[in-house]
Amino acid sequence: MARALTVAEVEASTFYDPHEHEHAAGGNTMLGFWIYLMSDCLIFAVMFAMYGVLGTSYAGGPTPKELFDLPLVAVNTTMLLLSSITYGFAMLEAQRRRVPMMLLWLGITGLFGAAFVGIELFEFSHMIHEGAGPGRSAFLSSFFALVGTHGLHVTCGIIWLVTLMVQVARRGIEPANHRRLACLSLFWHFLDVIWIGVFTFVYLLSTLR
Amino acid sequence: MRTATSADVTLHDASHGDEHGHGGAQIPHASMRDYLIGFGLSVVLTAIPFWLVMSDVLPSKAAAGFTIMGFAVAQIVVHMIYFLHMNAKSDDGWTMVALVFTLVLVVITLAGSLWVMHHLNVNMMPGQPAPDIT
Question: Within 13 Å and on the Cβ side, how many CA atoms surround A209?
Answer without folding.
Answer: 18
